[in-house]
Amino acid sequence: MDWLKREAARAQRHSHDGVLLLLELDPWVRLQQQYGDDCIQALDDRLSQLARQQLRGGDWVLAQPRGMWAVYLPSTDPLGALDAADRLRGRVATLDYRWQGQSLPLSASLGLAHWQDWKREPQQGAEQLLQQARQALAMARGAGCNCVRAYAPAPSGRSRYSGTRPA
């Protein structure tokens, strides 16, 4: 969170946008239960390396617990971030990861949030951005995993829920 707060302050000071991506490895729990901690640690290292290869010099990636990574893309617009996120998702899906001679299929879900309000305090902005990225990741999981979802605020005066109305 400290890194994100620093980035929020920097982005606000220089008036540039940025995007926070949360990447979650879809089969992480199953792999951890089936193959153990050594497999997971090696996979975490490999995916951190893969993410760094896909990013630009000023971008950062931070491994989180339980098969999750936070990726911050400074000076990135929402469309550029969607493109970067989908490329990252595709790279994870095509990664040839083997453990004890067995190929393990992988997929990732990604949620992203874009800085939208520069008038907030940097701490509030960072926390809000993280919460929005978490909501987008939950939408990606809810959509069946192996996809990218972006947080989009609901238009004012409208319900955030979609679907059928009660009778």
From TrEMBL:
GO molecular function: diguanylate cyclase activity
Segments forming a coiled coil: none
Organism: Roseateles amylovorans
E.C. number: 2.7.7.65
GGDEF domain ranges (all copies): 16-153
InterPro entries, per database record: GGDEF_dom, Nucleotide_cyclase, Rev_trsase/Diguanyl_cyclase
Gene3D superfamilies: 3.30.70.270
Name of the featured protein: Diguanylate cyclase
Matching Pfam families: GGDEF
Domain of life: Bacteria
Top-level enzyme category: transferase
Keywords, sorted A to Z: Nucleotidyltransferase, Transferase
Signal peptide location: none
